[in-house]
Design a protein that fits this description.
CATH class of the largest domain: Alpha Beta
Strand content: 15-25%
Number of helices: 11
CATH architecture of the largest domain: Alpha-Beta Complex
Shape: globular
Helix content: 25-40%
Structural class: alpha/beta
Largest sheet: 7 strands, mixed
Number of domains: 2
CATH superfamily of the largest domain: Medium-chain alcohol dehydrogenases, catalytic domain
Order of helices and strands: EHEEEHEEEHEHEHHEHEHEHHEHE
Oligomer: single chain
Number of strands: 14
């Protein structure tokens, strides 16, 4: 492939770290609902500025995080301040080629200044912003009893920012190892993963259910079960994206006067929230990054990690030092 150039209103960058997430594994497995092949993956990025327009505010050598959601700025969602669900959204590594490459050209507005963060930390900002956005969508506040179902990297980010919102966060995962790791890293309780989750929720909440439930499983069955775990008057946030239809019982939905939210991507404010939390030491990035590889070896490692996830939380591709 030819090297890209900066171009008008664009910045030429060198990817330095690329986080590998569930989206990338789904792309490898052919399960992502929005992707067309062939595609260069990579949307969780730490990049070094190589060449930038003089009026961009960025300078050569600067290390930044990246907001990979390129929006049109004109559609109904963008006009409403929701570029994360732009009608014409183009996501790096999904709709067009991403950062698993030596060079990348990006709109200047999609570079995120991250003063004080190192390259590893910059690469964690995007996936954590997904969690911060979901927590904001669910209107999580101090004292809320919150259940996060699914403790992969996205679920960890959700639970982390629920806790930082001073909610009483609890995690649940059928994978006992992942649930235990999440509870240890975040310092939150984990529901028992044996038997029926509804019975565990009833026992933990004395039959009330959780005021906020956030699903990060990617499992249609789990997403449907989550409706049963929400308290009367509560809120349910679907962070996962699946191809299948999700159904629920209307009578129960109305009986509880439940509020259902979809949560997609993240906004600039969510990126800022994450960067602030990393700067203040509230994010244990050293515990979240568990695996590393090179750009050359990623072609071997990604297929392995897609199926062998023992001990895996976040893997990074290292490009350069």
């Amino acid at each position: 492939m030819p090297d890209p150039s900066a171009g008008p209103n664009a910045v030429l960058v060198r990817p330095r770290r690329v986080g590998i997430c569930g989206t990338d594994y789904h792309i490898y497995e052919g399960k992502h609902p929005y992707l067309r092949y062939p595609r260069v993956m990579g949307h969780e990025l730490a990049v070094e500025v190589i060449d930038a327009p003089a009026d961009s505010g960025f300078s050569s050598g600067e290390v930044c995080a990246v907001n990979p959601y390129v929006s049109c700025g004109r559609c109904v969602a963008c006009r409403a301040g929701k570029p994360n669900c732009c009608v014409n959204i183009s996501v790096l590594g999904v709709h067009h080629d991403g950062g698993m490459a030596e060079f990348l050209s990006l709109p200047a507005e999609n570079l995120v200044r991250a003063d004080g963060l190192n390259v590893d930390e910059c690469a964690t900002v995007e996936f954590l912003a997904i969690g911060a956005h979901a927590v904001r969508r669910g209107q999580v506040s101090s004292g809320d009893n919150v259940l996060v179902v699914g403790t992969g990297p996205i679920g960890l980010g959700v639970a982390l920012f629920a806790r930082l919102s001073r909610a009483n966060a609890v995690v649940f995962d059928r994978d006992l190892e992942r649930a235990a790791a999440a509870a240890s890293i975040l310092g939150v309780p984990a529901l028992p993963a044996v038997g029926d989750v509804g019975e565990s929720v009833d026992a933990f909440t004395r039959g009330d259910g959780f005021e906020v439930v956030l699903d990060a499983t990617g499992s249609p069955a789990a997403m449907e079960k989550g409706f049963d775990l929400v308290a009367h008057g509560g809120r349910y946030v679907l962070v996962s994206v699946v191809k299948d239809s999700i159904t629920f019982r209307d009578s129960d939905f109305h009986r509880k006067e439940m509020t259902l939210f979809g949560s997609r991507n993240a906004t600039a404010g969510d990126f800022e929230r994450v960067i602030d939390a990393i700067q203040t030491g509230d994010v244990p990035t050293d515990k979240l990054i568990t695996h590393r590889t090179s750009l050359r070896d990623a072609a071997h490692n990604i297929p392995v990690w897609a199926t062998e996830k023992a001990g895996l939380i976040k893997a990074l591709i290292e490009i350069g030092k």
